[in-house]
Fold this protein.
Amino acid sequence: MRRYGPQWQLLGRALLALLGGLLLYLLTRDPPTVSLFRLLPLPTLPGEHLHCWLCGVLPSLLHVYAFILLSALVLQPQTRKQVFVLCLFWSGIETLFELGQIDTVAVLLQHTFSPNIEHNALLAVTQDYFLFGTFDPLDLLFVGLGALAAYRSLTRMATPEIQNDHAKDDNPISI
Amino acid sequence: MIMQKTTIQYLFKPILFLAVAMAGIISLIGSGGGGGDDVSGGGGTYSLLPAYAFRISGVDEPLDAWPTGVSVTLDEGGSTHYLRIDPQSLEGSFSCDPVTEVCELASIDTTTHVYVYDESTPETLFGDFSINILTQLVFDTTTDAPLSGGIQLAQEGGLGFITVDVTLCSGTPGVEIVDDGVLLGCYTWQQFDELMDTSAVAAEQASAMAYGVLEFLLELANITALNSFDLMEYDLENLGNVTLSCDSFSSAGLSPPSPIAAWDQGEVIFHFIDENADLTMGPGDSFGYIFNFCWENDPTDNIDDLFSGIIELISFTENVNSSDLLVRIGYEGATSGKTGGVFFDNFAWYETEPDATPPTTSFVSQMTLNGGMSVVFFAP
């Protein structure tokens, strides 16, 4: 039986996470609240949307997880510290965007975007993200969990020697 | 050759990482709100806060030839004036009664900057000028008149700097007009309102016009956005539109004004545009008015309004928080490639007055509006 290398496994996990997130959006979100539905010809599923507690926050976990793995595939971090920095980078970006959905922050951002959005679709969609989105502290928690899961995935796929060596901070890992 | 290969290898990772990072951020933005499905649809169930901030700003519809803001062609007293009003920001607050759901203007803030362009050739009014709020205008919500505050009209050369301070004139509420440090006069609100029709000096007339421009923009927001929020309570998702009858001239003992063939009883059609094609009304959808000679008879005033033409309300915003409180509503942003806001398409606003010998009626003035502005109310 053919064994796939760690890189293919990481790519597979990242794509699965992205597909899972997209499926969750299709099943649970009201299309007008999601800019992707306006930008891309995604199908709108008939009938009532699914309602579940985790459905609202799981996309945050899946998104940060997928993009940490994809970034690791490109950058090929060599040490645990580098993996940690990568996880910190993505969880930081996701946290900043989530904080931008706090109403008072969104209003400030709207003042920044409004004068320039007329001819820039990306700015308009960015403004929509902040204005129509709702800040949820649970999203921050799930971003953290997603980053933690990605860190575990990346360090577990390192060579056995490195997995067993926890003494040094700058353990080299090989993906 | 070796150098080139090394450089490409050197740049490959950062460029690829940049692409992944961009994809990550774009998909993050495209995912819209990440806080669950608590954004309600249009006309959803929610409660009002006791106060809302508002912001009106001029927008530029890319498909429209009109420049930013609202272009006004004013026919009055045999003269025609071409004006453009660009509210870079008209900001303030409304106070609301959460039980009766009635909201009243409470203040206009110092962050307000409105530009007025006299686009006639040659200029027929006072030239271009800006309107700024020097000290917050605080309104009496029962009389709709300011209790305190100050406005500045600024023009390079010409009029210079004119300030209009809310004060008492011989014990009656009104304003004091000061032109570059020189007091021009103190007027009650009624006198100030009528200054444009008197032989007052240009600085005084321009001051009255400046205040009138602020009132005009707020009235436009009222006619377009605020009224639409009530009309959304009709079953527009199923009906598509609703037609409402306006006041009739004959029931007021009058005949429609000539020379245009105004209807005796006009109508306004309010319709829903399902931008997302999801058969539900909510954020990102649009609305529109078609006014067919809609006359509003104010029994307390001899001069009444008659509307005819089209107003589009693009990219509805509505955000309700987890406590079911409305925290943002209006027309802004963009939807389906269209800039959000309220847009006027040759929208005619007439003022009518019964003649000396009723039942005939005449037009006092006619304004034709084009262009647009965004209007949004939000939690302060």
About this structure: Chain B touches chain A through 55 residues (CB under 8 Å).
